What we know:
The complex is a heterodimer of chains A (about 250) and B (about 280).
Chain A: H1 3-16, H2 19-24, H3 30-51, H4 53-59, H5 61-74, H6 89-96, H7 101-117, E1 139-142, E2 147-153, H8 155-164, E3 173-185, E4 188-194, H9 196-208, H10 211-222, H11 224-241, E5 244-248
Antiparallel strand pairs in A: 1-5, 2-3, 3-4
Helix pairs in contact in A: 1-3, 3-5, 4-5, 4-7, 4-8, 5-6, 6-7, 7-8, 9-10, 10-11
Chain B: E1 11-14, H1 20-25, E2 32-36, H2 46-57, E3 60-63, H3 77-90, E4 94-98, E5 101-104, E6 107-113, H4 119-136, E7 141-143, H5 158-169, E8 172-176, H6 177-187, H7 191-197, E9 203-208, E10 212-213, E11 218-219, H8 228-241, E12 245-248, H9 257-274, H10 277-282
Parallel strand pairs in B: 1-2, 1-12, 2-3, 3-4, 4-7, 7-8, 8-9, 9-12
Antiparallel strand pairs in B: 5-6, 10-11
Amino acid sequence: MTLIELQRNLRTWLTTASHEPAEQLGAGAMAGLDVYQNNYRGQLVSCLEDAFPNVRKWTGDEIFHEAVIAHIDSHPPHAWTLDAYPAGFGETLATLFPNNPDLHELTWIELSLSQAFVAADAEPVNPDTLASVDWDTARLSLTPSLKSRVMTTNAQSIWSALWEQTPVPDGAMLDVPVGAIIWRRAFTSRLKQVDALELEALLQLERHGQFGTLCHWLVERLGDQDGLTAAANMLANWLGSGLITAVDAA
Amino acid sequence: MSSALSPFSGYGLGLRKEHYRDFLEANVPVDFVEVISENFMVEGGQPRHILRQIRERHPVALHGVSMSIGSADGLDPAYLRRLKSLVDEIEPVFVSDHLSWSRIDDFNSHDLLPVPYTQEALDIVCANIQQAQDMLGRPMLFENPSSYLVFNGASMSEWEFIAAMAKRTGCSLILDVNNVFVSASNHGFDAQAFLEGLPADRVRQIHLAGHSQGTELLIDTHDSPVCESVWDLYAKAISLLGPVATMIERDGDIPPLAQLLDELSIARRLGALNAAGPERMAS
């Protein structure tokens, strides 16, 4: 057996527990193969437990571990880092529990907070340095740690209660969808609810970068006065929150 | 590639997050710390910031678990680039990984799987080591893993494989004394023969750790103190090797730092008693 055949055999053993590779390695190999399989699966279980402590609390241990086993059985790890493994767990939960958007959104929050924690560093712009900026043409860069999505449920309240160990509300649909943004400031990941307009404005800015274009878009939505006021307020909030990491002339 | 590592010995600990605060707030009496490379091969954020602060206080050894030096389909270039970025920034005293494999094709087991001790595997491992050392621009250290499996068709012992690997690639070695004990117990070989079979001049670092008794085999769990039998084997190793940078690894049931420092003092005492034994006896 060549080395690559042996390694593919062991991969098959780890991912399927098929006895065919075990038999090829000899009768005396079984105890050792069991150790490696236990290590492999145990490590992936621990990885998902560590990544989703609040999802686990929300679902309960039994449901969480059924989902973990289903995920491990259907998603062998590919990346060089185990830190990448939790990224696909949300899809497994969505497949297993298609009618639980609160769970999907809670999972997104927990994953995004941990991803923001180790996202690329970028210093926020100091607002005091912006006195001479031509805002019509300025291009804004958002922090690389920023993640955002539409929230249709009270998952943010659920997450906050789980995190703060206060009474957890039942899952519920929101009357009106809102936005959630997650980013890292200094060394702390942050979660904030924004209204749907601000979420869309951030997505516009991510796509186009130019503040003047964003102002036009807001003016079209809200009219001259309210649009420009909204743009100025959002800019001030984003600068104050450390979301803007560069303001460049076009 | 630069051809030699600087002389370095002393006593250190594997740094884990449970002890970050201790290391950042006080002058911990260790000669070096070792960290798991992959924990710091991230884009940014607090982990890398902490490592920079630690590096200002202590020499740092980078110890990897994911290079997969035994992969038959070669190394992952993206992994090597990230490791090089970390190495260039931290300027570690040692860069190491394991004589094992974890990845094949697009699958990564995230475990230290054993390589068969065959000529084909030796050729592949050596080619991979040379690629890694060329990329990093420095010699690496490779550690003997604990193993739970031996393969039919092996043409050499583990220590013969390691000696040939070191000779061909110029790499240095980590001797994990606990792993020797675990593998010797699991596979019935003579731990003393393992120690005597290593090229002593290539052993630059020693790992010590605890293990557990599994159903049939000893398991390298790193979740308990170093046992007496492993201390005895360490004393023998030091008497063969002379002073070698020695550290304790603990990855489970991590105790207060003071407890690990007490354990490290045992290594210091045994090291002082046994180091340079052969030369002293010869003279």
